[in-house]
């Protein structure tokens, strides 16, 4: 629904004529001289019921004048629509570690929930970019392919949880899965944001389904894909989930050392032209995403369209209705009273 406004709002000042006309009428009706008579009895019942309604003619005229003034002010409803055109598209894949350690509570309420909130805001702030989502732990899965339908993306970000995939931390597999989805991208810039809170724990040498982080990095370099890496976790020790309570099935947390393979994450970022960040709390995680957002800006042209619906004819029509009603009543019902 559009906004209601006036094209010439200053003309509404003419509405001040209404109280002035009322004042002049009252003053004109006021008798200057009093007629002194011995009795009012001869004038009893001399005023008919119809005469009591005669002031309505003046009311009709005032309403008509007010409506004409409003019509002169050009009332209208303005509806604005906009289209956003991107001259430099960016394809982004967020690769999120969903291993059990992401439930550690050094970020509030835990690492995964803190990340989901920041990732959701990041997607909202980039309406013209195609963004996808990959979740990984001991294996990887593409949750959302590259898309501009950010409602779907945000829904899947909110649904991220631990325990859905095989346990472990397969950084190379997560990275390779994202690269695979960017292979056919025609975007001017292809970006991966890789998040983890641990160390590569998969022995890729004994399983052909796995790929090392180093090999995945070289594929990214060959395909001109830039990777930003984020290590999530405080410095020192943090409360990690280590089991469940037998009675209420709640997670049990114990303090353990935080171990993040920062040399590997720096290597991946450095080789691909990206940058490594360390998020030790909620504020630093938010700041990291803000920095990436600033470094990978999309050039946007926003075109706005304004649709004006003129309403002055409606007000003018009703003004004419009241004027006509006054004229007809004055020439018919109230004719003998004039």
UniProtKB/TrEMBL annotation:
<dbReference type="Pfam" id="PF00092">
    <property type="entry name" value="VWA"/>
</dbReference>
<dbReference type="InterPro" id="IPR036465">
    <property type="entry name" value="vWFA_dom_sf"/>
</dbReference>
<dbReference type="InterPro" id="IPR002035">
    <property type="entry name" value="VWF_A"/>
</dbReference>
<dbReference type="InterPro" id="IPR024163">
    <property type="entry name" value="Aerotolerance_reg_N"/>
</dbReference>
<keyword id="KW-1003">Cell membrane</keyword>
<keyword id="KW-1133">Transmembrane helix</keyword>
<feature type="transmembrane region" description="Helical">
    <location>
        <begin position="56"/>
        <end position="73"/>
    </location>
</feature>
<dbReference type="InterPro" id="IPR011933">
    <property type="entry name" value="Double_TM_dom"/>
</dbReference>
<feature type="transmembrane region" description="Helical">
    <location>
        <begin position="6"/>
        <end position="24"/>
    </location>
</feature>
<dbReference type="Pfam" id="PF07584">
    <property type="entry name" value="BatA"/>
</dbReference>
<keyword id="KW-0812">Transmembrane</keyword>
<feature type="domain" description="VWFA">
    <location>
        <begin position="91"/>
        <end position="292"/>
    </location>
</feature>
<dbReference type="InterPro" id="IPR050768">
    <property type="entry name" value="UPF0353/GerABKA_families"/>
</dbReference>
<protein>
    <submittedName>
        <fullName>VWA domain-containing protein</fullName>
    </submittedName>
</protein>
<keyword id="KW-0472">Membrane</keyword>
């Amino acid at each position: 629904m559009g906004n209601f406004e006036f094209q010439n709002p200053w003309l509404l000042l003419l509405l001040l004529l209404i109280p002035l006309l009322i004042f002049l009428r009252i003053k004109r009706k006021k008798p200057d001289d009093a007629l002194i008579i011995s009795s009012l009895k001869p004038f009893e019942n001399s005023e008919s019921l119809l005469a009591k309604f005669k002031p309505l003619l003046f009311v009709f005229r005032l309403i008509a004048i007010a409506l004409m003034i409003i019509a002169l002010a050009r009332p209208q409803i303005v509806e604005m629509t906009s289209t956003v055109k991107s001259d430099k598209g960016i394809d982004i894949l967020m690769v999120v570690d969903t291993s059990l350690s992401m439930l550690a509570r050094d970020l509030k309420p835990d690492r995964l929930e803190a990340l989901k909130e920041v990732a959701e805001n990041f997607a909202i702030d980039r309406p013209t970019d195609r963004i996808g989502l990959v979740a990984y732990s001991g294996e990887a899965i593409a949750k959302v392919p590259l898309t501009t339908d950010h409602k779907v993306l945000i829904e899947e970000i909110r649904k991220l949880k631990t325990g859905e995939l095989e346990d472990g931390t397969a950084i190379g597999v997560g990275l390779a899965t994202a690269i695979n989805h960017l292979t056919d991208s025609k975007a001017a810039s292809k970006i991966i944001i890789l998040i983890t809170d641990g160390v590569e724990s998969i022995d890729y040498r004994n399983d052909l389904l796995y790929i090392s982080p180093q090999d995945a990095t070289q594929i990214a370099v060959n395909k001109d894909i830039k990777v930003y890496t984020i290590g999530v976790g405080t410095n020192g020790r943090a409360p990690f989930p280590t089991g469940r309570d037998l009675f209420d099935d709640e997670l049990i947390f114990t303090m353990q050392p935080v171990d993040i393979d920062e040399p590997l994450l720096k290597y991946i970022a450095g080789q691909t032209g990206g940058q490594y960040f360390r998020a030790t709390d909620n504020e630093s995680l938010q700041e990291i995403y803000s920095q990436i957002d600033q470094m990978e800006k999309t050039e946007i042209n926003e075109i706005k369209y304004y649709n004006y619906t003129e309403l002055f004819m409606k007000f003018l029509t009703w003004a004419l209705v009241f004027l006509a009603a006054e004229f007809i009543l004055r020439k018919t019902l109230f004719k003998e009273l004039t």
